[in-house]
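As agreed, record minuted below.
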Amino acid sequence: MGDSALESSYADPTIGIVQFNILAEGGAGGRYGLELLALARKPVHTGQERSEYGERLRHFVRYLRRSLYVHEWFHILQAAHYPFVYLDAVRQWNLYQDACDGVRMLPAPTISMRLPMNPLIRQTIEQSQRAYHVRIDPVARSVDVSGTQSEYLERGDISEAQLLEEDASIFQYRVEIGAAGTGAGYQQWLWERSRYRVVFDYLRTLFGDSDRAVALLPILVRAAYQTTLPMTAFAYLAGWSVFTGKPDTEAPEEAYALCMSRLEKLPMEHGDMPALEQMAGDDKFHMITDSDLAELCAAAPRSHPLNGLVQIVLKRRKDSQYPSWWFKPFTLFDRSRLSEDESLSALTPPLTIIRLLDRGVPLGHQAMLPNMEIAPADLRSDKRMWPGGLLMALARKQLVLGMFTEAMDVYRHWCPHNDCVDRSALCKRWPFVPDDWTNCGFPNFLTTLTDRRVASPDILAKLGG
């Protein structure tokens, strides 16, 4: 991700949306990119022209930005396969709805200033970004994981978000080179441009072996996220690997199975499967089985976009095992293929949005690619209702973050209508920007969710709108 979601591509695994925002500067993509840019700059009126543009955008990202495509998609695969990521996604879904309901109880009829920070929202936001200090002592054979409040990160300070990002980076690296890769090769790949590397560097130093670090990192992360305390599980497995020299990384699937068996012996209090209503910071250690995951999926809101993906995963696997392509992704994600492998097509994100960013291209010129196979049965025949609902869910999340936190402050406003009387920081990422601001649906959206309306522009200026 970059400094603005408008200029960078990103995945939101809490909802299942991937957005590819492709910069068109400098004729990106060679001749094909230039032709695409020329098409984008033309007024698009007919359905056929829109369809052609959408298909070209899809082709551009899938095959000319293949590495980026795989990285962002993998974050959705993590949410569907890693039980704790899915648990967190469902919890956040419920929390954002509860937050909107809470605003309805406020006495003021308008939203005129940032609302008092909801402690559950703060905990949710901070949990994945919170740094933990991991201390592994090979001499004392001890492992310690503790939260750190320091502004300055030291070696051994790792967050849950970094675990997932570096897991995705190694997956991307292997697809890009078409092989399992080596430690030296991965280091070179990291150096070529700025990429996530905190966890890899920590393991490389800990093991004294970059080959072992790149081979073991995704295996440890995968096993750790089968639990309710992924950072604790990751540190315990890393320590066990240093103390014993296990597992053998030549057979990654067996190495993963051995890590799972070790976690069952983790020397700490084990608890039951946590409830959806409690937050991650209150969880006890628990190995989330496929049976637990099935019960969680049944208890989740019916409309959660990831439910369909999780149900497919549960049908395909047994005892939390992963197919071989998880360990050797280059066997399925092949650059030479003109279409995705059939086994992967059903696992595409609930919604993929592709935009070509250029001053001459209207924001509305985009491709929206929904995965209709996982839509609720009553929505599968409507290719507008399902993606529209997902965009509304994303808008709800961004609205809550804008009302209660500073998380949206770093983003620039999408909307070009500076004269809009309802313009504010709350609608920075409203996905349905109209040609005429008087036709904007955001005011009604805000009122529907919160029973409140936007305050006067002079007051809302305090929010950075």
